[in-house]
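Incident log, structure service

09:12 report received: a user says their structure output differs between two submissions of the same chain.
09:20 pulled the input from the user's history:
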Amino acid sequence: MTQTFSGNEITVRRVAATWWPLALSWILMSAEPSMLAAVVARLANPDIHLAAYGSVTFPLIGILQAPILTLLSLSTTMSRDWDSFVKGRKIMFYLGGGLTLLYSLIAFTPLYDVVVRDLIGAPPEVIEPARLGMFVGLPWSFAVAYRRFHQGVLIRFEHSRAVTVGTLLRFVMDAAVLTAGLLIGSIPGTVLATLMMVFGVITDAVYVGLRVRPVLRYELRRAPPVEPPIGLKQMILFFIPLGITPLLNQLIRPIGSAALSRLPDPLMTLAIWPVISSLSFLIVTPGAALHEVVIALLDRPGAKAALQRFMGIVMAVQFVLMMLLGLTPLAYLWFTKVSGLIVPMAELGAKAFIILIPTALISPLNSWFAGSILSSRKSRPVTEGMAIYLGVYVVALMAGGALPNVSGVYVAVASSVLASVMQTAWLWFRSRGARKERP
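09:34 re-ran on a clean worker, output below:
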């Protein structure tokens, strides 16, 4: 179904109409870690496979495809006419192909042992299960590149509901793969988790590729040329800092894993941390979905006030939900009944989850500040913010790791929240000029 609006005035209702399909897509995707954790926890050796996937396979795949993630922001920002789209598409093909080659070198050569054994310092029992997960994850990078770049075109021309349909199809495929794995019972948990992600994203990419064709033919080709034209060099210079940002973000997990691996009881800590973070992300992801909405709409009349009002609503709802989970037994019930954690792990996770409550306010603010910067066709301040996050996170992990008798889970959660606060403060400072330019 196509979304249509009369006039150019942006209202809260129009912001909501663009946002809710993206938020739903984010929520469905953020449910994937909880889904796979619930299934892997019911297969053989759940602690080993949860730790292998959550602390080695998924972080490595995340790092290798990190620059690809910002193709969504590149396309949403730059796909304003056909010439700009073609230049962006060249970046997508070269980047997706190059990173797939790099993935092959790490997954299928001795480089894997250097990275996992020597750099990450993963526990010996998770190294081989994680290697098997890497083997089956090869198609991931290019499928994500193709999907995210063309999703940006759909969002720019306000067809965000198509993004949700693709995610729904992905979710159905996820469930089918997990159900098959649970029924078979003999597939290693790390392999099953990676297969779910690969089949899901390929399904989504195929749908998006088909759905974007009429938008390219009847809307993008007919869009008035951007004046002055956006040169390929200008686009690359915009993308380079943008591409570094998710790479820094993806470094957070392996750096955290390396630190947690050196704390007391590392296997339990490594198994609990991805379950906690996935639940938190599930709640705060509507705020993260505002990011592309800000980029797509901020340059239109009335958008600034409408976006700010809508952001306040999202912050309030997320904060209430995080409070309900953190200050009632709901988080513990989630970890035991849904995630399938044993009681000691669930109790530790529920206590640590309370520390994450402030992230309910942080994610919408980050989307507003970063989206404002990118809408003005600047990207370096966003990379600076992520670098600050990573730096604060590392320092806090080192300081917290020196504390005696403190669980690594508490150290990881508290470090993450502190780093998020500092990142948000920096984005607020660096986005002042971009926000003042908007009426």
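09:41 both user submissions now match this output. Likely a transient worker issue. Closing.
09:42 reviewer note: The CA atoms of residues 79 and 86 lie 9 Å apart. DSSP finds 20 helices and no strands in the chain.
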